[in-house]
Design goal:
Number of domains: 2
Mean pLDDT: 76
CATH architecture of the largest domain: 3-Layer(aba) Sandwich
Distance between the termini: 30 Å
Strand content: 5-15%
Largest sheet: 7 strands, mixed
Helix content: 40-55%
Strand order of the largest sheet: 2-1-5-4-3-6-7
């Protein structure tokens, strides 16, 4: 069943995006809520920035094959010790910046013993993150690993060693395309002293609206069976600030992207030959392994958790309830999501 309404603004952005080459995503703006990340700990447990509020957070991105990340590890460790108990440091492990099997490979990585191919699955990325943390003397408890589709990396600007400072209330106060320990130290000293971060150490200030690519991806998924596509219609009728859009839209776009990917499996299952094992039939019909299918389901469950957190944080209770009802509507989605995904 097709819907009668699709947000006009989203369709316009979609048309613009499809007509022109997409540029590299810009880092988020300062002074707005930090976009939620989609990541797990080294033992596979979800990591949410929302749960870290109460003291400042340093969010640093990196990978084993990024020389600058490695070169600054010791200086960052000094700051970790200096602000122990006052600041939470999160090292977010991403896709390899200079993988050995890519055109971006560096001889320096080979010379220093950090030449690695791009992982082919999440388990490999987590294993490499563990090894890197050990070699660089990073506390494993401070390491998170980006979701396999690199959601967090893309949301924050796609720089291999970008770093952000988030205050105790979850608002972005400083950001650097590359780790700058001198500016970072000054920013943390200000926050620790109850002061504003000085303008000269805040770093870049970017647009506060989500980029067109994210909005286009969201609008393209607002068709099909009833239920989730109504989220777009509902959001289009709400008065949202730029800060709320920055927090909500990427989470909505990622949910629709993961839902579309998983639904491809569900649709293929309908045309597959009958089999006693529905999961096996679905996987075979779609040409993916059961392991890949489970990864897709995990991605979808993580993205709906992020959407839930973003909606709860930015919307009045009544609107939050409406959106969550849409997310969970229909027997298909009710089977996908565990009861603990929604806390009333």
């Amino acid at each position: 069943m097709k819907i009668a309404l699709i947000p006009a603004a989203l369709l316009i952005l979609s048309a613009v995006t499809l007509a022109a080459p997409l540029e590299k995503p810009l880092p988020p703006a300062l002074g707005v809520p930090a976009p939620e990340i989609a990541a797990v700990t080294l033992d596979g447990k979800p990591v949410h920035l929302l749960e870290l509020r109460g003291k400042p957070v340093v969010l640093e991105f990196g990978s084993a094959t990024e020389p600058l990340f490695r070169a600054r590890a010791k200086a960052v460790e000094t700051l970790v010790k200096k602000y122990a108990g006052k600041v939470t440091f999160v090292f977010l492990y991403t896709q390899e910046a200079h993988a050995a099997d890519s055109p971006q490979a560096l001889d320096l990585n080979t010379d220093e013993g950090f030449s690695f191919s791009q992982p082919t699955k999440m388990d490999e990325r987590i294993a490499l993150a563990k090894q890197t943390a050990e070699r660089l003397h990073i506390d494993p408890a401070q390491v998170a690993v980006d979701q396999w589709n690199n959601f967090s990396f893309k949301s924050y600007g796609s720089y291999p060693n970008m770093t952000f400072v988030i205050d105790a209330k979850g608002v972005l106060q400083a950001g650097y395309p590359w780790m700058d320990t001198s500016k970072l130290n000054a920013a943390l000293a200000a926050l620790a002293g109850g002061k504003e971060v000085p303008a000269d150490v805040r770093g870049h200030i970017r647009q506060s609206l989500p980029n067109a690519e994210q909005i286009a991806a969201m609008s393209l998924d607002m068709t099909g069976s009833r239920g989730p596509q109504g989220i777009g219609v509902l959001l289009d009728h709400l008065t949202l600030t730029d800060a709320q859009k920055m927090s909500l839209y990427p989470a909505v776009a990622q949910f629709f992207s993961d839902l579309r990917e998983f639904r491809g499996i569900q649709q293929a299952k309908a045309t597959a030959a009958t089999a006693t094992d529905a999961a096996a039939a679905s996987a075979a019909a779609a040409g993916v392994t059961p392991e890949k299918m489970q990864t897709m389901l995990t991605n979808l469950q993580n993205s709906v958790r992020n959407l839930d957190a973003a909606c709860k944080e930015n919307l009045p209770p009544a609107d939050y309830e409406k959106i969550m009802d849409l997310v969970h509507s229909g027997p298909e989605l009710k089977r996908l999501f565990n009861a603990d995904l929604r806390t009333k």
